[in-house]
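Record pair follows.
FIRST:
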Amino acid sequence: MTAHTPPPPQTDAPLTLYGETFASRLLLGTSRYPSPSVLLQAIERSKPAMLTASLRRQTGSGGEASQSFWNLLREAKVPVLPNTAGCHSLQEAITTAEMAREVFETDWIKLELIGDDYTLQPDTLNLPEAASRLIKSGFKVLPYTTDDLVLCQRLVDVGCQAVMPWAAPIGTGKGPINPHALRTLRERLDVPMIVDAGLGLPSHACQVMEWGYDAVLLNTAVALAQDPVQMAGAFADAVNAGHAAYCAGAMQAQDSAQPSTPVLGTPFWHQA
């Protein structure tokens, strides 16, 4: 691979994943909100491309609560992206994905294969194999991964048409802790890239979009805000602003001051 900077996309080009287009570049999680009503309002305000949902967590709640959640997702009328959150083995992730396909009636899956319970870091050794098996079974896999370039390239090599590197560990809200790694990823890989996990502020989302990322996925930063609905809107606006700035082509930073007002044509008494 040779280093290159991808050309800015057309401003009006929609987000495209596995051949499907989406009007929004924001994906939204559905857990930890104060109430179902607040979640629905946040969805309405941010108008996300997809909603993530954990089959294991929701079915684990059981009974009426689980049914209520499925009804809420249907009411939202937004495509659902099931995930394999909580899976620690390759077979566990594959089985959960297959169950999710039956429950949600979709081939989309956000592949989470956790290798460490404390940091929730992905199992980088088994993630490509899990992705490969799911893709061969007809899934549209969006893998949650670290910002490791070689790992992300391996995921692309096994058939992933998009990857989802973290900005920071899940739920930390620290924002991009390794800007160099994220920018290198964007420069080296040509597939759509979605920053997933670790964003805490709308400015974080705006920044990664300015670097050329195609979308962001959020949950905790919105759900745990004092006003989740307003925060959902703020993130949606930030994502749009960052993408527009990337498409516009930002000026190059300079090492020294540059006059913003030309001297030519200035009255002589201003040129002293």
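SECOND:
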Amino acid sequence: MDDIKERLLASYPADVVRRFFELELLDRSFGLAAQAFVSLLPLLIVVVSVFLGGNEDFLAIQMSDRFGLAGAAAEAVRALFRASTATVTISWLAVVMSALSAFALSRRLSRVYASIYGLPSLARSQLWRGLMWIVVQLVLFAVASQLRSVRRDSGLVIAPIAITVLLAVWFFGDMVGLRLLVPSIPRRLLVPSAVVGGIGRVGLTAWSAIYMPRALSSQAEQYGPIGVTFALFTLILAGVFVYLAGPLLVSVWFRRRDTATPPDGIALAATE
């Protein structure tokens, strides 16, 4: 019995769980999700308002179509985004403040990634990489939205192609994002992390297609627009877990494989 217990404690899943709590990733995930909610949503509203002429219903329509919402749920989503749009004065000040908030999120995520890999985070001379990361995320959001629309509206022949392209988009998006936020990451960590991240994003898309329609409808009926924010925060939190899953799983795997790697993990990069 003791032998079985020792094997379980020394297993790869146990090491992943142990590392997860050593790095306080649960607390950090909630912090990242909260910051993403208050920074990326206003930034999306500003971008939509600038490029789509203030179409306040655009994001609401996109979300309703994405999750097949109707009735009270669709109206609650529309009310939430209209209220959010009304609080954002589209000016250079709004653009700058939204960008700064998202920039702070990128730096925070860089520090979390760096702690997982045991590598340096962004230096002051590399802060431009955080801004580029924001641009990459906006482009990924737009491309993924279009691919999901193609997959939903297409037949059985086109749908698998759209899913494959979506996986490729997330893979290359993760590679670019990780390279931007952790410039010193070696290729042997970068590629598998991006593969796991891409698969995780596709899985998150499938999970959200099942969970979010029911969650949004239920929360909207009970709490109105505030209930929609609860469901959206759950989705963002799940997305943060997916963002961190690839780096965590891959870094622990190489730690176990490289028996000479010291506990702080700095040597992960040295053995490329």
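COMMENT: Residues 260-272 have pLDDT under 50 and may be disordered.
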